[in-house]
Specification:
The complex is a heterodimer of chains A (549) and B (335).
Chain A: E1 21-22, E2 24-26, E3 29-31, E4 38-41, E5 48-52, H1 57-73, H2 80-96, H3 98-109, H4 113-134, E6 148-149, E7 152-156, H5 162-175, E8 179-183, H6 190-201, E9 209-211, H7 216-223, E10 230-234, H8 237-247, E11 253-257, E12 263-266, H9 272-284, E13 296-300, H10 304-315, H11 336-351, E14 355-358, E15 373-376, H12 383-386, E16 393-399, H13 402-410, E17 417-421, H14 425-434, E18 439-442, E19 461-462, H15 467-472, E20 475-476, H16 489-495, H17 526-548
Parallel strand pairs in A: 1-5, 7-8, 7-10, 8-9, 10-11, 12-13, 12-17, 13-16, 15-16, 17-18
Antiparallel strand pairs in A: 2-3, 4-5, 6-20, 11-19, 14-15
Chain B: H1 9-17, H2 23-30, H3 38-48, H4 55-67, E1 69-72, H5 80-91, E2 105-109, H6 113-120, E3 133-138, H7 148-160, E4 165-169, H8 172-176, H9 180-193, E5 203-207, H10 210-213, H11 216-228, E6 233-235, H12 247-264, E7 269-271, H13 279-292, E8 305-307, H14 310-323
Parallel strand pairs in B: 1-2, 1-8, 2-3, 3-4, 4-5, 5-6, 6-7
Helix pairs in contact in B: 3-12, 4-13, 4-14, 5-6, 7-9, 11-12, 12-13
Classes of the chains: A alpha/beta (549), B alpha/beta (335).
């Protein structure tokens, strides 16, 4: 026998105690949805996992109302320290139920259990722990003393990291004092619904977290709802653009984390074995269903052939198959729709003259699968070099000089992430400086940490998630109450690391506190005055602290 | 380039380096090899360590580990009695189960080679034939701090006494001082002394002592240098320095032999030694070998474990797989 045909080592599904049907989680309870329920399936074998409720406009209304009540009567009045306690409790429960969450995630999403177990779920816990610590320290978030929560946050998340994206959204929102209505993607609602059970287990006040399931129309109803103060969306650029249009002219504050077409730049002095691993991790991690995936490999022409040869040899050792097998490296594509898109773009690549190579691996007969694929001889004009494939497909391009590498890397409407591989420290800094990307990894790729802000340039979105900057997306400076979210660009630039928040109409007097600074409500002066107010607050800070002591 | 005995180290180096193996040429070559990113290397090793080897794969792996062990005793207190006991254990690792494979070799100090050969008797021979080889540490092991003449005499002595394999140490001081040609020349000279009168040659394992080289870049350069100079095996450690074999270091050395094979078609062995005590750890090494250099490296002429306590843990695991329950330390023999 061949040792490399490792005997099956499946993670047991026995740890799951799934319900057959899931309702909407509104006001602390599971309730029926008014829309037609839908099924969530395992993409690895197309078998049904559970039936899930579908929220229509009335359900959305119920959820937003519940969140509003919870905000007005409980959550906004609670001390940061107490909010932190709840978040710590949630973090610990995530750790306690880690194995269960990992199995559910791999089952519903198709990602390998080693990734859900070693990456997704530990990061989820880390995100809650991190923001739990912030809950009573908001004075230090960079918005001056006593920054205010925004109110009710509408959050719509994608299917590629279902539970992790939930954590990225919910943890900072709750820490900052907002209440939330979250809609998971229709193909991956399972872990969000288990998370709803964790919310119950943590005894979180009812209505602080509401989770509603459904498809695009549910999401549209949620972000368009009048009772929402903040919209946070992660997903495709097309939908993000739609959302921006929907809420333009309203008082809602918006953050968008959208697509990407990241360049992974490999110089000829790169640590070659680690660069190969980084390329593989960059594009084949999570089947390439990663918005910051290193889908464009920019390799210095002098080492192109060697890199491609090594890459092919390495890809031949990847193991595609059952997501629940602990030795699986490449799981299932999340949906037939996504598989069709990957196929369409790959075929376009061939038609445009690029050379396709796929790793030799057996494709299971049921479910949605795509073998790890490399395209060489790709030109910058090809669709596969420009459009986000969101699958295990790597386009290899070459460059001659650092200047050309930077120019090619930036030649995209996106700007979410990039990678640099070189042994030369000064080159890392110089190239990173020239890259228009929100995240630049040096000699590594796809590493995430709750303390590190994440977000995009250009069509990759605006706003930052993670770190102190991520809190800023859920806070307004003191005196700017709910609805008065016309955050001046200057503050936004400071808070969101250079990102410009869309200016929205301030709507004074919805909160009693707003009357303390009535001038803040007047446009267009509001911007500069807010800035002054914030500066004043900052200047006062040390004195105030001194007095308090 | 197949049989090493047909090509001298000098010829091999000339072919690869394109010049005489002097300090300047070696430096240009070794420093031209791509660097190692420590974080990335350790991440990759950790990822390989998460492979889950169960049931049939585990049973195969346990037997394979036994057949790759250099059962070692390297103490000042070693006696003929101790070596005879070790040889007995090497031939019959588990007296309760005759299906247990023999280990690849026993590894002893040079003065005890004759005792080991004698104790193994008819079982002494090539591990490929199910026999047990005798390996001797030489060249002023473990420090290597002696003149070349002493090192060569040490080696010649062990070969004459019947050693099939010589585990030499490199001069780490010379390597760290940048005197690569001195290290090269010493390895090449020891390799010459490994030749026997009948034209055959003892296999040469070159110990880098990675715990003293400290950086991964050094380990990679020392690996290339040792192979260029004629080593048949590159070995991590003496076991006498606190940082001995680690998975990242072994992964790095496996990458070197994989690249050497790609460049020359010749296969070089790798031997992690020191600190591998459990079956679980040893299985991680098998996975790393198979997924880096390839499965064909999992044979005694291309991969070894330098270990002493590992064997008993593997035997206990093996018994557990067969009986379904754990026994205890008294159900395996002390050597």
């Amino acid at each position: 026998m061949s040792f490399l045909e490792y005997a099956p080592a499946p993670e047991s599904r026995g740890i799951l105690s799934l319900r057959d049907e899931y309702g909407l989680f509104i006001d602390g309870e599971f309730v029926d949805g008014r829309g037609a329920p839908f099924q969530t399936i395992s993409p690895a074998n197309e078998q049904r996992i559970a039936t899930v409720a579908n929220a229509d406009a009335r359900d959305v209304d119920d959820a937003v109302s519940a969140a509003r009540r919870a905000y007005d009567h409980v959550w906004s009045r609670m001390s940061g320290r107490d909010r932190g306690k709840y978040l710590f409790r949630i973090a610990r429960l995530v750790q306690e139920r880690a194995r269960e969450l990992a199995v559910a995630e791999s089952l519903d999403n198709g990602k390998p259990i080693k990734e859900s177990r070693d990456v997704d779920v530990p990061l989820v816990a880390a995100w809650f722990f991190y923001y739990a610590g912030w809950a009573d320290k908001l004075d230090y978030a960079g918005l001056g003393q006593n920054p205010r929560a925004l109110g009710v946050a509408a959050q719509v998340i994608p299917w590629n990291f279902p539970l992790l994206m939930l954590a990225w959204k919910i943890a900072p929102a709750l820490a900052a004092g907002n209440t939330v209505v979250l809609k998971p993607a229709e193909t991956t609602p399972l872990t969000a619904l288990i998370f709803a059970e964790i919310v119950q287990q943590a005894d979180l006040p009812k209505g602080v977290v509401n989770i509603i399931t459904g498809a695009g129309d549910t999401g549209a109803a949620l972000v368009g709802h009048d009772g929402v103060d903040k919209v946070a969306f992660t997903g495709s650029t097309a939908v993000g653009r739609q959302i921006a249009k929907t809420i333009a002219g309203s008082s809602k504050k918006l953050t968008l984390e959208l697509g990407g077409k990241a360049a992974n730049i490999v110089f000829d002095d790169a640590p070659i074995d680690q660069a190969i691993e980084g390329i593989v991790n960059g594009i084949f991690f999570n089947q390439g269903h990663v918005c910051c995936a290193g889908s464009r490999l920019l390799v210095q022409e002098s080492i192109h052939d060697e890199v491609v040869d090594r890459l092919k040899a390495r890809l031949s050792t990847l193991r595609l198959g059952d997501p629940l097998d602990k030795n699986t490296d490449i799981g299932a594509i999340n949906s037939r729709e996504q598989l069709d898109r990957i196929r369409e773009l790959s075929d376009a690549g061939v038609a445009e003259g690029a050379e396709r190579w796929s790793a030799p691996c057996e494709i299971p007969s049921n479910g949605f699968w795509y073998a790890p694929t490399i395209f060489t001889n790709v030109q910058t004009s090809h669709r596969i070099a420009r459009e986000e494939i969101f699958g295990p497909v790597l386009s290899v391009l070459t460059f001659r000089t650092p200047q050309e590498a930077i120019a090619k890397a930036n030649n995209t409407p996106y700007g979410l992430s990039a990678g640099i591989w070189t042994d030369k420290g000064s080159r890392i800094l110089a190239v990173a400086d020239g890259l228009k990307a929100g995240v630049v990894w040096a000699n590594t790729f796809n590493r995430f940490d709750p303390s590190s802000p994440f977000g995009g340039y250009k069509e990759s979105g605006y706003g930052r998630e993670g770190g102190r900057h991520g809190l800023g997306a859920y806070l307004a400076p003191a005196g700017l109450g709910r609805g008065a979210a016309g955050t001046p660009a200057a503050i936004a630039a400071e808070v969101a690391g250079g990102t410009i928040e869309p200016a929205t109409q301030p709507e004074a007097s919805t909160q009693p506190e707003a009357s303390a600074q009535p001038e803040a409500s007047a446009q267009p002066e509001a911007a500069s005055q807010t800035k002054q107010a914030t500066r004043a607050a900052r200047t006062r800070k040390p004195t105030t602290k001194g007095t308090a002591k | 380039m197949t049989g090493t005995s047909l090509v001298t180290a000098h010829e091999r180096a000339l072919a690869v380096l394109g010049g005489e193996p002097d300090d300047a040429t070696l430096r240009r070559y070794l420093h031209g090899i791509a660097g190692v990113d420590a974080v990335g290397l350790e991440q990759r090793a950790a990822a390989l360590g998460t492979r889950s080897i169960k049931t049939a794969s585990k049973a195969w792996a346990l037997d394979k580990i036994i057949s790759l062990i250099d059962l070692t005793t390297l103490e000042g207190a070693d006696t003929p009695g101790k070596v005879r006991s070790l040889a007995g254990k090497a031939v019959t690792p588990d007296p309760a189960d005759a299906s247990t494979p023999r280990v690849a070799a026993v590894c002893v100090y040079g003065d005890l080679v004759a005792t080991a050969v004698d104790a193994l008797g008819a079982a002494h021979g090539d591990p490929d034939d199910g026999r047990v080889a005798v390996a001797a540490v030489a060249t002023a092991f473990p420090s290597g701090r002696a003149s070349l003449d002493v090192k060569l005499a040490d080696t010649a002595d062990a070969v004459a006494a019947g050693a099939d394999e010589i585990d030499m140490v490199i001069d780490r001081g010379a390597f760290l001082a940048g005197r690569y040609s001195l290290v090269f020349d010493q390895i090449a000279a020891v390799k010459e002394v490994c030749r026997r009168a009948d034209g055959t040659s003892a296999s040469l394992k070159v110990i880098l002592e990675t715990g003293e080289l400290v950086t991964y870049d050094n380990v990679r350069r020392a690996s290339w240098l040792s192979i260029l100079a004629g080593g048949d095996f590159i070995k991590t450690s003496t076991g006498k320095v606190s940082s001995a074999a680690t998975l990242p270091v072994t992964l790095l050395m496996l990458e070197v032999v994989r690249d050497w094979h790609r460049a020359t078609g010749q296969r070089i062995g790798v031997k992690p030694a020191g600190g591998i005590r459990t079956s679980k750890d040893a299985i991680k090494y098998l996975v790393t070998v198979a997924e880096t250099a390839g499965e064909e490296w999992l044979q005694p002429h291309l991969f070894r474990f330098g270990a002493s306590s590992l064997l008993n843990d593997v035997l206990l695991q093996r018994q557990k797989m067969r009986s379904g329950h754990y026994s205890g330390a008294d159900y395996v023999t002390i050597d």
